[in-house]
Amino acid sequence: MASNPLIRDLVRAIALGDGSKMKELNNQLPDVDRDDYVVRVAAMFAGVTAHVFEHDQSPAAIREFVGKMSFAYRNANPPFKPLAMEALFRALLGEDHLLDEVSAADQFDLEILAIRMIVDQYPAVSAQLESYLNDAEFLAAEWQNEE
């Protein structure tokens, strides 16, 4: 995947919670770039999640973070899906089979929610946002080259 500044700006807007910018950029994104965008969001999710669970990848740590997300997104519409979120985190840590239970649309929506919360709650991530965006671009390209 070649570098795409529009996708990068869109993922940055997600991370910063800039809803109006997200909507504007999403409307500009050509359909041909949608798959690249989905992969880039997944790569960003993987990168920021690695920071959260860097020292503790236990089921208890995952449940604790999902509990924080449940509280933060308690009024979300559509409603937050804690079991699906836990499955996404656990899949990143090697339990890939759990993704069979989560629709692609839910995965994408939950990845966006997680990215936003992690960037908001972890100053080390927000301070290095451009590095995380660079890493996501690189990881997404690697994943797409493996296909």
Q: Count the beta strands.
A: 0
Shape: globular
Query: Radius of gyration, rounded?
Result: 15 Å
| Unreliable runs | none
Query: Element order, helices and strands?
Result: HHHHHHHH
The fraction of residues in strands falls at under 5%
The portion of residues assigned to helices is: over 70%
Describe this structure in words.
The chain has 147 residues and is mainly α. It contains 8 helices and no strands. It has helices at residues 5-16, 19-28, 34-52, 59-72, 82-92, 104-121, 123-127, 129-146. The longest helix has 19 residues, at 34-52. The protein is globular and about 40 Å long. The protein starts with a helix and ends with a helix. The mean pLDDT is 94.
List the helices and strands and how they pair.
Layout: H1 5-16, H2 19-28, H3 34-52, H4 59-72, H5 82-92, H6 104-121, H7 123-127, H8 129-146
Helix pairs in contact: 1-2, 1-8, 3-6, 3-8, 4-5
Summarize the structure.
With 147 residues, this protein is mostly helical. The protein has helices spanning 5-16, 19-28, 34-52, 59-72, 82-92, 104-121, 123-127, 129-146.
Features:
globular; 73% helix; 147 residues; 0% strand
